[in-house]
Amino acid sequence: MKPYRVPQLAKKYVEYDMILQHTDMPSFPDSRARLLFTFLNRNGDQKNGQEELYPLATSLVQMGLDTHDMIDIAKEIPSPSKMRSRQLKVLAGDYFSGRFYQLLAQAGSIDAVALLSQAICDVNESKMSMYRSMCQFLMPPQEYLDGMAVMRKKLFLCFTPWIRESDRKLWESLLQEFSLCDTLADELSRLEAAERFRFSFAFWRLLENVTAEEREQLLGGTVDGKSWIQLMMKYKVGDMLLDKLDAVIGRIRGILSESDDRDREDFGRMTEPFLRIISTPRTAVREG
């Protein structure tokens, strides 16, 4: 089996000094890319290099979508630095999304272009459906988490027909759980900045539990950094997310313990980045 090196291959597309210096970027979807690489790598009929090409192209599309999702759409006039950050996110997202097509077209993988293009449409439709509910402030926090996890797995899930049939049950189970791990990790990172809280899990969780005065502040967008930290600590949102992440890792272990899959130890090691998050002192998570 080839060694996994998709993140290294992606570096020349995602690591640009101007982007890294002036704006923040989404995390590379490493666990999902590694899963896709591993399961494609088992197929004896895969053309040389496709087991790397497809995870790479899919990861670039995912980063393009995630980058656009991070664009600040606040109505107030931004500072020059925030305007630069916003512009770079637009350009970077477009660039990542365009690269997937170029890579697959150059390799003659037209079928993969069709699969990913349809998956992108499905993701965008799901986003619009969620956004309509969000704008009406009708989004239960668990429904939000589940919806975000589904959108994180859709691009990778579209390759299921190209995965060996005997592997598909395990592939789909692990992809579901690791997509949820990635979602929870991102939501934990959003606790660190009050400007990223709107429409996050924390926002929906608080909206269900806060006082009438606190609810008015949340809906009015008048929560500052200090107030945000106080709300996080009062309602223990960080603890809840950590507990959910711990539960998902437990489910992954359960899936692997019931399997005699030859790669189960490697799959188990894929939980290590999430275990490090859980091992972070909870006071640090609560306080951002």
Specify the CATH homologous superfamily.
Answer: Farnesyl Diphosphate Synthase
> What is the first-to-last residue Cα distance?
41 Å
Structural class: mainly alpha
Order of helices and strands: HHHHHHHHHHHHHHH
Global geometry: globular
Number of discrete domains: 1
Low-confidence stretches: none
Report the biggest beta sheet as strand number plus sense, adding barrel if it closes.
none
Oligomer classification: single chain
Provide keyphrases for this structure:
0% strand; single chain; globular; mainly alpha; 288 residues; 15 helices; Farnesyl Diphosphate Synthase
In short:
Helices cover 73% and strands 0% of the residues. The protein is mainly alpha-helical. The protein has a single domain (6-287), classed as Farnesyl Diphosphate Synthase, CATH 1.10.600.
